[in-house]
Amino acid sequence: MKRSHPHLVKVAMIVLLSFGSLGIISGSFFLKKAFSNTNEPELITDPARYSEIRHQLWSNNDQIKYFPDQIPTDTKSVRIAYSPGFLQGGSYFQVRLKQSPQKIQKLLSQYRNIALHTYRGGSTNDHVNLPNGVPTTFFYTSDSPTESFPPGYEILVLDAQDRGTPGFKWNHGNSHGVAINNLTSEIVYWAEQW
User: Fold this and answer.
1) Where are the domains of the chain?
2) Which of 31, 115, 168, 183 has a CA 20 to 30 Å removed from the CA of 98?
């Protein structure tokens, strides 16, 4: 007759449950850390970070080829927002510059000639819901918590790619362009992927 070892079974169960609990706790910690780091946009005021994001961190160079190679020396103020995205989350890169009125007028004329879509103020939610509308961006580099561009901004879409599936238009895709405010002499370069 075989004799069971009840103490050995209990010890084995305790060890297995301990490892399982440890795995669940550490897994949830790492997931929480991953999501909390990527859900918050990174607002950057140091122009030195621009080059790192522009040339190393943003993966699709075609979307940002019209961004300035470097921050122009005559720029009065710079605001940069960058989010690399995570898993199914979208990513964006946006830089807002104040330039001379003459330079802004020249850029406005240049980008109006090649824009595929033009909007006045608003955000991506407003633009995509218009007839033949396409996604654009939110005003990540705003001085206030607003997500929409004020009416003084002309949003010029240089390209928008729908990578959704039938029945889920714009579920995935990308868009990029500029938003220009003639009155404040500002230009916002933006690129979005989702």
Assistant:
1) 1-38, 40-193
2) 115
State how far the alpha carbon of 154 is from the alpha carbons of 21, 124, 139, 183, 188, in Å: 54, 13, 12, 11, 10
How many Cβ atoms from other residues are within 10 Å of residue 111's Cβ?
Answer: 21
pLDDT, tens digit only, all 194 positions of the chain: 555 566 677 776 776 666 555 555 444 444 333 444 444 556 777 788 899 999 888 988 899 999 999 988 778 789 999 998 776 678 999 999 999 999 999 999 999 999 999 999 999 999 999 999 999 999 999 998 889 999 999 999 999 999 888 888 888 899 999 999 999 999 999 999 98
What is the model's pTM?
0.76
Alpha-helix runs per DSSP H in 63-189? 101-114, 124-128
* Alpha-carbon radius of gyration of the chain: 24
Q: What's the start-to-end Cα distance of the chain, in Å?
A: 66
**Could you give the strand order of the β-sheet that contains 173-181, starting from the edge strand earlier in sequence?**
42-44, 78-83, 91-98, 186-193, 173-181, 149-162, 117-122
Task: Give me the residues paired with residue 92 across strands.
Answer: 83, 192
Q: Angle at the Cα of 110 (from 161 to 57), degrees rounded to 5? A: 50
Helix ranges (H only) for the chain are 6-39, 48-52, 101-114, 124-128
